[in-house]
Write a structure and sequence with these properties.
about 200 residues, globular
């Protein structure tokens, strides 16, 4: 495997990784990793609600990457450190480059595109926890009135059980609102202690 090419500011190994030192994707796996939008039905209800000017609730579930997506109304939770308000605690190497986590930035875009004072963002991310760890108490981490749920399980790929991912998706789709589901995967390639690079993150 050739040395990774990293964005400016990320430290990457200068030599190829020895076989077995980390999980690398094959060319076939990379090709299959192209984003899939799913059916229009997945987002039709959400878009209809937004176009009618009604409020929506966005949920986030996953591990530490999900937590770093940020939240706005959960004081004391780790996700609140990524609200981008300028009052966040010193996060050391885990400081978002854009001033707020991805979920907060998405939520702000949604609210500026379809404004409503009743829109809500709830982050139920659980650090170092694969999806099966949240399955038995799923709806303490995701609101049952969610209209959109962002699922980030890629960062726990080494420990996740595929059956748990399916069970979570089925449970969410059985809710009365039948929320739109978005699977977001963030794969570490370099710049972390797990991959052999320096522990520096610059998102």
């Amino acid at each position: 495997v050739a040395a990774a090419t990293c964005p400016t500011g990320l430290a990457c190994p200068s030599a190829p990784m020895p076989p077995g030192s980390m999980r690398n994707l094959s060319l076939d796996e990379l090709k299959r990793g192209v984003a899939r939008l799913g059916s229009a039905e997945n987002v039709a209800r959400l878009l209809h609600r937004l176009r009618e000017g009604r409020p929506v609730t966005v949920g986030v579930l996953g591990s530490s990457v999900a937590q770093m997506g940020g939240c706005l109304w959960q004081p004391g939770e780790r996700c609140a450190n990524y609200a981008g308000r300028g009052t966040d605690r010193d996060l050391g190497l885990f400081r978002p480059r854009h001033g707020a986590g991805f979920a907060v930035r998405f939520f702000r875009w949604l609210n500026s595109t379809w404004p409503h004072a009743g829109h809500r963002l709830y982050n139920g991310g659980l650090g170092m926890t694969p999806p099966q760890g949240a399955l038995s108490c799923l709806f303490t981490h995701v609101p049952t009135d969610a209209h959109l749920v962002i699922l980030e399980f890629g960062s726990t790929a080494a420990g996740l059980r595929h059956a748990a991912v399916e069970a979570i998706a089925r449970a969410l789709l059985s809710l009365p609102h039948r929320p739109a589901l978005v699977f977001l995967s963030v794969r570490e390639w370099c710049g972390s202690v797990h991959s052999g690079g320096a522990a520096k993150y610059d998102w």
